[in-house]
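Fold in tokens:
===
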Amino acid sequence: MPAKSESHLSRRERQIMDIIYARGSASVSQVRKVMPNAPSYSAVRALMRILEEKGHLKHTSEGNKYIYVPTRSRKEASRSALRRLLWTFFNGSAELALAALLDVSRSGPDSQELDRLAKLIEKARKEGR
């Protein structure tokens, strides 16, 4: 089961994290400029402080403003989110999640995609996972 310290992100928090991952680092003003239907400066600042409290961001000071950076890579964060998704909706089963993904795909995976998936499965078998 995922660690309890891994907090759920609201829609706005996810937007902020996406912006910071894309930029590498950002101030509140920089985030607000590219955020769709951005709330007030103080609301974005509060959200970024919450993300820092949750352990997703950290900051450094540049003059009188804070510059925020993610505390872990996007890859690490995506793996953590996927683990939470697996436990929340599929009882931790990758098989059930993959079956659901294949079931909801509009056109279904093409043969190349299925070959790539088969290679990933084979690699996981060889590595003993």
